Amino acid sequence: MNPLLLFEKWLSEEKEQNNLKLPAACCLSTIGLDGYPNSRFVSLKEIKNQSFVLTGPLDSRKGREIKNHSKAALSFWWTCTERQIRIQGDVSEIPKPDAEIYFKQRNRDSKIVSTIFEQGREIQDIPYMQKLFEEKKAALGNKDVGQPKNWGGIYIKPIRIEFMEFKTSRLHERRLFEQTSNGWKMTILQP
């Protein structure tokens, strides 16, 4: 069985039962520049080329961490279906034409924020940040918002995916898929 197809099935089932604003929200964990794990929530764009696609500024902390150590983990927790998925994989940059497509799909305010700010860097204060945003928005008027040079995306090509279904009996069902030279190998784990 291809675990990426199972992932898409589970995501679809969660979307059917839940009206979450961000159904594809997930926790991305990287290895920090200081050696400590670092996690944050991001939004999965899609599965493409047998990989999970994420986008954003490539010079942000997460981008620098990934460039330094091209391995990452994703975790999904879905409350309606009571399922968890954990993914570990190797990271590579998506092609620039694909990044352009993803950037064009963003809402206008998100595009503007990406052109003004350096994600995760210090700023004077919140009113100053809001002022910069409003000034840029006014200056742009109805003009198209161009993609910044630092904005792109990554593939996380999974080497390991664990699916867990929570059960009231506490006999949680856990299936681990690991990539081998012969394809995916599935094992059942104890709860």
From TrEMBL:
InterPro entries: Pyridox_Oxase (IPR000659), Pyridox_Oxase_N (IPR011576), Pyridoxamine_oxidase_dimer_C (IPR019576), Split_barrel_FMN-bd (IPR012349). Binds 1 FMN per subunit. Residues 15-125 form the Pyridoxamine 5'-phosphate oxidase N-terminal domain. Keywords: Flavoprotein, FMN, Oxidoreductase. It comes from the Bacteria. FMN binds at residues 40-45, 61-62, 84, 174. It holds the Pfam family PNPOx_N. The keyword Flavoprotein applies. GO terms for biological process: pyridoxine biosynthetic process. Belongs to the pyridoxamine 5'-phosphate oxidase family. NCBIfam families: PRK05679.1. This is Pyridoxine/pyridoxamine 5'-phosphate oxidase. It comes from Flagellimonas marinaquae.
